[in-house]
From TrEMBL:
Protein name in the entry: F-box domain-containing protein
Source organism per UniProt: Caenorhabditis brenneri (Nematode worm)
PANTHER family listed in its UniProt record: F-BOX ASSOCIATED DOMAIN-CONTAINING PROTEIN-RELATED (PTHR21503:SF8), F-BOX-CONTAINING HYPOTHETICAL PROTEIN C.ELEGANS (PTHR21503)
InterPro entries found in the cross-reference section: F-box_dom, F-box_Sdz-33
Transmembrane segments: none
Amino acid sequence: MGLPILKLPYLALKVLVDHFNYVELVTVSLVSRRADWVLKTCGKKPVPFFDMQGSEIRDLFDFDKIPFLALKVFVNHLGDVELVTVSVLSRRTDWLLKACGKNNVSFFKLRGIEIGYLRQIQVIELFLLESRRQSELPEWNFQLCYSVSYDQHISISCEHFFFRIRFEILDDIEKFVGIRRRLKIGESFVPLVITNDDGVKKTRTFWSSETDGMIAFMNFFKNKFNLPIQQLKFAGNRSRDIRTIVTQINSTQTVVKNVLVSVHPPLSADDFDFVLKNVSATENLSSHLILSQDFKFIGKIRAKIIKIHYGHWFTLENLAINTENEEIYVNGSDYLREELRSFLKEWVSGRLPKLKEVKLATRVCCLDVTRGFSKRRVKCQNDSGRTVEAVLGHGDSYGIVDLADRGQGYFRMKFYNGGLLQ
């Protein structure tokens, strides 16, 4: 397909091209490689389709400005990604695409390789706009991770992309230099700046407060898709933010799968106590926080897996009261022989039915802990040939202690029901 203007003398063609606006340049550029080459020869490097503003793209699809046949020809030259860019602008532009024979256009129908070629800001914009008009997400293994810290942000990942959006205070926007856009989340538009920090591009959005931004994203994904939080990370002295975010999560009954408390910058003891009491992780609670010897906490932690890296505060009472856990790992503790034996008695009595494994820091030998308990001698040699000791538990359950762990600085035991170990 050719364009009549391409037959004009060069000088006349250049004068004509100099009068083209962005929309017209992109329109001509998309017609053919030859048309694009002619524009470049005239000194016009066309603006990429994706860099056009929404109002400019909508101008391409205005029946009052372009005859339908011309519009249809133009649409036929658009690739899948370009069609999605047009489709998500508004219901009207999506309807115009359908009128031109382009049905079921969706960001979620793009191939991974097509998404991979997009710039991160394009992925963010197209994903959020597409999510706004859909009732469910595709099965791409979406994960939302929130960080409540000195650098508050959300990370969104799936099989085809990963991006991070930071939350800043609106009053600070002039401090940042970079590409400025407006991002639509739900029904709201917020300022966005893409900065280049020592070669690393960062996407920053600006709000009345940092927590307002985080809550806006939480509400969008909760209300639209009931999507759980894959990881909620806490770090730093952000007491007000921590309480605001946790209160929001609990009031909306948002599921939090994993909670991570970082070692640096540290939470205060009061904030850590608040998190333990008010955030219920369904899968994993992991704490790297170093606390003073005075810190105490007695209460249930409902996560399936507990990992405490500096756990002097995680006492025998904590071990006994947490009856819902499947795995408990505590470093930095120094459990005494009688404490470990008391814990083992709790398990033998059947009060810890879901427990699958414990690994507890101690200077006590494992044989001193299990001495005097009923043994299941038939289970004392596993498939690996390593020497083990099996302690008889409630019903047909038993716990295995690997004797090779002696002197390693911890007491480790795995728990089974009958028939799992021959």
